[in-house]
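Data deposition worksheet. Section B asks for the primary sequence of the deposited chain exactly as it was used as input, without tags or linkers unless they were present during the calculation. Section C holds the resulting structure in token form. Section D is free text for depositor observations; keep each observation to a single sentence. Incomplete worksheets are returned to the depositor.
Section A, Depositor: J.P.
Section B:
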Amino acid sequence: MAPNSWDVYKNDPVLIAARIEAGGVAHWPRRAVKAFQAGRPGNDAQRTGRPKSTGDQVPRDQVAARVAELLDADPTISAATVTDRLGVHRNTGQDALTRLRANRIADHI
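Section C:
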């Protein structure tokens, strides 16, 4: 939660009722803040990770094989090109390229 958001939220009647002062400093119990977050309309306090209905463009078990095909066709291929062609995250493309290139170098040694 951004600090400027908290400046607005702490004035909500639910949080005002839960506020306590210790040594002249305002405090809000964690359970009150979590209950406030969970009760806000349109927000899911448990929501994390990838948005619903978005799956992998290429299933994880097929990434290496698909990147290997691209690498065979163009040995100088970049992670950005892999990302564009397969619709995977740049880090996923880079990891697959790095592993494949390392394995191919190891096979030659």
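Section D:
The first helix runs from residue 3 to 9.
Helices lie at 3-9, 13-18, 30-39, 60-73, 79-86, 90-108.
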